[in-house]
Amino acid sequence: MPENQNVEWKAKWKDEYLGWICGFANAQGGKIYIGCDDHGKVIGLLNAHKLLEDIPNKIRDTMGIIVGVNLHVDEGKEYIEIDVPSYPIGISCKGVYYYRSGSTRQILSGPALEAFLMRKRGVTWDNLPFPAFSMENVDDTVVEHFKQWAARKGRIDQDVLEEPKEVLLEKLHLKNGSYLTNAAMLLFSQDPEKWTLENLMKKHASSPYNPNIAHVFYLAGFIESWGRGIEKMCSACEKDGVPQPEYTIYPGDIMIKFTAPEDRIVDPTARKVTEKVTEKVTEKEQELLGLLLEDPGYTMPQLADKLKISRKTVATRLKSLKEKGVVKRIGSDRKGYWKILQ
Fold this sequence. Notes:
Elements: E1 7-10, H1 18-26, E2 30-34, H2 48-63, E3 68-74, E4 77-84, E5 97-101, E6 104-108, H3 110-120, H4 140-153, H5 158-161, H6 165-171, E7 175-176, E8 179-180, H7 182-188, H8 197-200, H9 211-220, H10 229-240, E9 246-249, E10 254-257, H11 275-280, H12 283-294, H13 300-307, H14 311-323, E11 327-330, E12 337-340
Parallel strand pairs: 1-2
Antiparallel strand pairs: 2-4, 3-4, 5-6, 7-8, 9-10, 11-12
Helix pairs in contact: 13-14
């Protein structure tokens, strides 16, 4: 049987397969068979009994979940079945969220990760609270239009339509706790602030959406003053010799796009490690490779911190990997990254 959404075959165990287990847990669940070739034929394991103890512990320590790990025998050959249920909450493996799609393992990030986590929590974007939008921002004219349209359709009691707007919006499920929601802002807001690129680049007032958090960051020195973020970003780009940011302005937010120079773009093929490559390296070096798969831009101090080893040991392992032709440093120590060779 070929691999599919719910089945994966592996000849032997490698710790990088924890990501596959995480992907199954975040999707529909599934089974991984260790000790089988790509077509599902049992080829056996020499260390099946040790893996029967090691695998559950590694899964628990990295993801905090429990899965079924079962030993099977076929014509005298032992193999392991890892039975992963679908979890109702988002599961991460060493801080990375994986997702099973078809017969592939995908890494979730950015908007895809945010949407995934909201689905797992049973939350939709339009029901999220929008603290910066209050009753003062509700356009009474739009509310009156809604009441007229709704009255003509007769789909809501007249008594509700006669309520003050504060009560009306609550009965329309447009409040989340004490805050109005994103939906309320889109449906009943006054004309949003008319930001343009011209006035954005000038000095302007700044109102943090999370003032309490912003205040703590200010006291800690992470924020120098309000309203200088755009200016500082532009100055930093100019100083670093990279293109200026591009701005897309929406009613409720502003999207900023940064463009990286070609010499700083991580090669997407570096996120894959072939079976042939992993056979060249030791188990400790595989741990290091696993981190470089997560983020090729990790610095030596970051790698040492994550592996709980000294920087000297990290340097030794990196040197060994370079000598074996497994990794190559691209760019400088400060701005470069590690390319994993095929």
